[in-house]
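Issue 218. Parser rejects a valid record. Input:
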Amino acid sequence: MKQIIFTEKAPAAIGPYSQAVLAGNTLYMSGQIALDVAALGDVRAEAKKIMDNIGHILAEAGMNYSNIVKSSIFLKNMDDFAVINEVYGSYFTEAPPARETVQVARLPKDVNVEISVIAVN
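Output the parser choked on:
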């Protein structure tokens, strides 16, 4: 049994995928990017916008950041690692989720960062 999770508080999918899918008590969230023109080009602003959008999708599924068990961060430039860590870390006061961070050649819409998460209720 799966349920599609969608909120207008986060950007709609830009392709044939859902913002998130709830399967049982596990939420699989698609990679989130900052589509806000004001945030584009500023890694800190992009990361904050992404994390806020993740929060909106989590809320739509009846969850919050504490429900995240795994994150994947994709960076255009690994030199942005410290900035991303600072922003990302501010959303987890204790027991942060498991995570990997990788540098990639290119991201959708030429953004600097994309983050996906798995959360469990």
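Fixed in the parser; the record now loads. The chain has a mean pLDDT of 95.
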